[in-house]
Amino acid sequence: MVGSVACSCVDVSIDIGLPSRRFVNAYQSEHGLAPGVYAAEAWDAGRLAGDWLAAGASDRDAVAASLALLSTFDGVARAYAFDEVGELTGAEPGLYLAAGTRWLPLPS
After folding, report:
1. Dist CA 81 CA 91 (whole Å)
2. Element housing 42 (H / E)
3. Residue 40 CB: number of other CB atoms within 10 A?
4. For 13-33, how does the pLDDT look when each residue is reduced to its tens digit (9 = 90+)?
């Protein structure tokens, strides 16, 4: 389909869940516009890294050790799951139709 694209991103602007609404409101308050592609995933990664730093992970080895202990993480974009070597599991890309500034999910 012309105008379609595969992307593992999540458009939280259409989600009615409370975590998504809070994220969208905070993002718009800070930046004056709706979150863009991968904004929710970047927020989740930043939150996870911030948690590690707050827990005392001050170098690469400490962050790697923290990641090795992680099996799941509930983020704004989705619930993330990791296998025994730290690889992300179950993150299938979605197919979207580019419609102006929005990406509309296409039915599977």
Report:
1. 9
2. helix 39-54
3. 25
4. 778 888 889 999 999 999 998
